[in-house]
Amino acid sequence: MSLEKQFQEYAKQWKKEKGHLSTIKRVINNPSYQAIIELGEQAVPLILNELQRENDAWYFALAKIAGEDPVLEEDMGFTEKMRDTWLDWGRRKGYIPTLE
Q: What's the distance, CA 10 to chain centroid?
């Protein structure tokens, strides 16, 4: 199975299992979410692509895989700012193509 297909299967399962009112602990401890983290750096572009399409709780996975978190402390909890920061990070790091 391709990495992208594997990622999509894990992401679909995670979204199904996490529900809409889950705590962050439940979201990030989900086995499918953890399996995505275990895919490592190759999953980063796939996660960022998902984040572009839908603002969801990918921030912990990105930080865990990247070994850094570009989100400012004062922006924590503001999902639109967090999303924009991670997408900017992805462009700077070359994970997201930039239009020139």
A: 12
CB half-sphere exposure, 17, CA atoms < 13 A: 16
- CA dist 60 and 15 (Å) reads 15
Give me 88's structure tokens: 């900017």
pLDDT tens per residue, range 25-44: 888 899 999 999 999 999 99
- Count other Cβ atoms within 10 Å, centred on residue 8: 14
67's tokens: 């070994």
> What is the model's pTM?
0.91
Structure-token match 């004062």, residue found: 74
CA distance 92 to 98: 9
